[in-house]
Write a structure and sequence with these properties.
The chain is mostly helical and about 120 residues long. Helix content is about 65%, strand content about 10%. The chain contains six helices and three strands, in the order H-H-E-H-H-E-E-H-H. A three-stranded antiparallel β-sheet has the order 1-3-2. The radius of gyration is 22 Å and the shape is elongated. The model is unreliable at about 1-5 (pLDDT under 50).
Length: about 120
């Protein structure tokens, strides 16, 4: 039973990665992370044609990344954090790999800032 649940979880994370692999969908998610927006706002901010925005929003909605509400004549989209939380949970064990590299880079840059400037050859 555990194996079945793990496989189902992995498939859901894989499909989440497939959804966010598209740069336009990531841009839409970034906009929606700040606040809910209408399709026309997203079009204007990303300079994308309305059919493209609608297509990407449909993919995001079908995957559970966004939800919409109707406000008078417009449809407002907002981010749903649950799919992103699953991606974040999957990435958690791997953070130690890049954290160590970022820490090493920070130490290296600190050492560079402390070292006296080398004298170059004069021409």
């Amino acid at each position: 039973m555990t194996v079945i649940c793990v496989h189902k979880y992995i498939r859901s994370v894989e499909s989440a990665f497939a959804v966010i692999a598209d740069p336009n969908r990531r841009a839409i998610l970034s906009l929606l992370a700040a606040s809910q927006r209408s399709v026309s706002e997203i079009e204007r901010r990303l300079r994308m044609p309305q059919p493209s925005v609608s297509k990407h929003l449909r993919v995001l909605r079908d995957a559970g990344f966004v939800e919409s509400t109707i406000d008078a004549q417009r449809r407002l989209y907002r981010l749903r954090p649950e799919p992103l939380m699953r991606v974040d949970a999957w990435l958690a064990p791997f953070r130690r790999f890049w954290s160590a590299h970022v820490d090493a880079l920070e130490r290296h840059l600190d050492r560079m800032n402390q070292a006296p400037p080398k004298k170059g050859k004069k021409r």
